[in-house]
Amino acid sequence: MQDGWRNMQYARLRPRAAAKPLARLVAAATTHPVISRVVSPVVWLLSFVVSILLRTAFLTLPTVPLWYIYNYFNDYWLFYFPPDSGMFVPAWPEPRTQLVVLMATIPSWGLCMAVAVLLWSLVKYLFPWVMRRRRGGDYEMAIPMEDVHPNGRTPKAPRSRPAYCSLSFACFVVFLSMALSGVYMFETYENPLDYRYRPAVAAALKNPTRSGHHDGTKVFIGAMFTNNIDILPHWIKEFNKVIYYLGTDNVFVSIVESNSWDGTAEALDEWKGTLDAMGVAHLIRTRDQTVKRPGDMGGNNRIDFLAAERNLVLAPLVEKGGYDVVVFSNDVLIAAESVIELLQTKNGEWDMVCGLDLARWGMYDAWVLRDRLGNLVSSLWPYFMDDVGMQAAMDDEPVPVFACWNGIVAFRAEPLLPLALRTPGRLSTAPLASPLPDTHPAFPQPAALTPAQTPPLAFRSSAPRECFSSESFLLPYDLRRQFGLQRMYLNPRVINSYEWKYYVWYRYVTRHWLVAWWMRHFEKREWMMEARMVVGDPKRVWKWDGGECHPWF
């Protein structure tokens, strides 16, 4: 019986009529001596090429959608981050960006190929079944009579699984795994450290109370805005969440808006009504001209203007006191849980703590930021060149710094208050260990003067013999020199930015576990010294009491 099946012959009973002329033409072409010399090699070559393509189709055909999908995501990347948009190239290493493109490409390609393999397998299975169901097929099976069973029943041929079935199944599993890896990477796109306070914020929104869900700390929230309608709705939404978490009785909001023409003032006017409905104490100045903007915003003119604006924001605090902590925000994109993360840095054991603002050249506020030794930093991750700072930044832990601002900052309110409004015991009653340098505008001061007796601080510009610095640098500098407050940190988990595309890139993409793993293990840091962010001529960097000075002027 088995030998009969091996010798089974197939007979063509009804060849299609359309195939006869083609068969005659091919036969004539191959038998004619002249035409055969030309046609035969061509036919052989075409047959060889087609045979190779068919035999390697499972390898060559998938590269077509792979190439298309890769180029789609790469073009998408170049659309949002064009090379000629002023980005600092070292802050966007090619291997890192290509890794991100591949993280989107491979799962998408895997999904497409898994669907293709599934459809192809269905066709391979269904086509023979359909052909068997058709009447009068092109082929019929001729079975030797000796193999017919005596009872008249035709024996069934032993079935074996075709080789393509195993290959198709293996390919389907591989491609489906790629697609599912994309689902996993998408579901785990956020760093758990970045949203660990999100449940607490959600609970505060679900069950709002006037005392809040924090520890009862009184927080003064301040900010300045000018033409920020692009980010302001998000900022307001997130700070509403922060207020509910802290407690509406524990917050004062002070905003100064000036010189806007894009709807910023109108958005803040609307927020006034929201804060009134929430029962939050606030003073929001819109279209304010208390501080005149100078025509020339160069040099100390700009610093004097910004210092006066910031002092105007703090005016309600200085006049009445009553708050423990100041949260001062720039016009940045930031999440509510990041603000809570800022306040919870080191379990609240800090004198000043800053976020991390990021932009097209990496870390944004390099003019203000100094490492714990007072040295300049890099705009490239992990930003700090001293071992302690670098390791802390790589571990996502608070980094001790000499000074910072970086988009959003929290600091103790006591040094800004008049002596009569200060709470006893919050500032030291012992004289400072080191006297003020003679370059400081408050020099000289009595040797017995204590921080508790020191006049209140305010934002200011540089004195003539000081390094030309930002008002945002001079505040932490004065906190150190005049009040002896040394616990200052930058929290690398508090990501913020001034544009949406950079916020998404740094808040989600570069903090994705796979990208972060790549950065820690494969990106070199030996050349960071060459990428140290210097505002001015690097050869003219000099040191003063506040550390290394940017040679801007």
Automatic annotation (TrEMBL):
Record's keyword terms, sorted: Glycosyltransferase, Membrane, Transferase, Transmembrane, Transmembrane helix
Protein name: Cryptococcal mannosyltransferase 1-domain-containing protein
Domain of life of the native organism: Eukaryota
Pfam families: CAP59_mtransfer
PANTHER family per UniProt: CHROMOSOME 8, WHOLE GENOME SHOTGUN SEQUENCE, EXPORT PROTEIN (CAP59), PUTATIVE (AFU_ORTHOLOGUE AFUA_7G05020)-RELATED
Entry-linked InterPro entries: Mannosyltransferase_CMT1
Gene Ontology molecular function: any one: glycosyltransferase activity
Membrane-crossing residue ranges in chain numbering: 42-70, 99-127, 163-186
Source organism phylogeny: Eukaryota, Fungi, Dikarya, Basidiomycota, Agaricomycotina
